[in-house]
Amino acid sequence: MKIDPFILALLATLCVAVVVPCHGAAVPAFNALATVLIAMMFFLQGAKLSRAAVVEGLRHWRLQGLILLSTFALFPLVGLAMRAGLRIAVPGALSEESWTGLLFLCALPSTVQSSIAFTSIARGNVAAAVCAATASNILGLFITPLLVGLLLGRHGAVSADAVVGIVLQLLVPFIAGQILQPWIGGWVARHKKLITFSDRGSILVVVYTAFSAAITGGLWHILSPAALLWIVGVDLSLLALVLLLTWGLARAGGFSREDEIAIQFCGSKKSLATGVPMAKVLFAGSTAGLIVIPLMIFHQVQLLACAALARRYAARPADIASAGRA
Predict the structure, then answer these.
(1) Which Pfam families match (predicted)?
(2) Across all residues in the chain, what is the average pLDDT?
(3) DSSP strand E in 191-282: where?
């Protein structure tokens, strides 16, 4: 299993933030750069998205509904249950900021690229995965801020300024890209490296600015090595539970094997590309750097675990893959 170069770049960015954090006059410049890159990323995503593919995928409403329920209902319920259980079994295992980060993770939409890629590798319903991941990200722009307010209670309620920030930085560029899609969609599709650079470049800049603020705000006095291990363990448990539950729900719903694969991979992912910019808007200052730690760890865990699971599905006999289940 090859290591994703982006994971290495993310780790390198964290190291740079630890050694040379952004401070002083450089902070406004990096924040402005992050805002521009995030807007560009969502604009290009909107320009790339085919409306015909969305309409086709939305016809499979049972599958789409189960994936959305897994993303925006099952995940938060599991997260709340884990928090309640651990607070009783091991009080103080995670700080309030870490639990905030975990619940924020649970409220995020699914990934796009990796959900589709793993579904394809596993020989699942790729068309449904494309539409489900796309719908999750579009709806997540509205649902995630509301869920964050509900999950975190009055102390974490989303302010009007945060909602306006999400609309201006994420939704407006996306809609602009969709409006211009008939004219520039083909050009964007031919320049996939531009999308990759926009996605990953914006995440790296936002991570650097967020962690720089966290480092200068005394991150290592708040997050101990033991706490970091607890976050890894909680992320692993969360992913394992959701993978198991999505598999069980798909089986109980009588979906075909191809649909089952799409449900499992799309319903168990969380988007780093959407989560990091949202955290920047919803959580100010050094808090954002600490809150995105569970998300960044979960991102690496889901890539490794789902890559292994996709290969396991792909190794099944072709006759079973084609027959599926009624």
Answers:
(1) SBF_like (PF13593)
(2) 81
(3) none
Using alpha carbons only, what angle is made at residue 185 by residues 164 and 137, rounded to the nearest 5 degrees? 40
> If you average pLDDT over residues 265-281, what whole number do you get?
86
Which of these CATH numbers, 1.20.1530.20, 3.90.700.10, 3.40.50.720, 1.10.287.500, describes 61-162+203-318?
1.20.1530.20
- Tell me the helix, strand and coil percentages in the chain, rounded to 5: 85, 0, 15
Distance of CA 219 to the CA centre of its chain: 23
Question: What are the pLDDT digits (tens) for 170-189?
Answer: 778 878 888 898 899 888 88
DSSP result, 228-250: HHHHHHHHHHHHHHHHHHHHHHH
Kindly report the CA angle at 116 between 113 and 121, in degrees rounded to 5?
120
- For 251, the 3-state DSSP assignment is helix
Question: Would you list the domain boundaries of the chain?
Answer: 61-162+203-318
8 Å CB contact between 103 and 76: yes
Question: What is d(CA 201, CA 197) in angstroms, rounded to the nearest whole number?
Answer: 5
Amino acid (1-letter code) at residue 153: G
pLDDT at 50 over 80: no
The pTM is what? Answer: 0.77
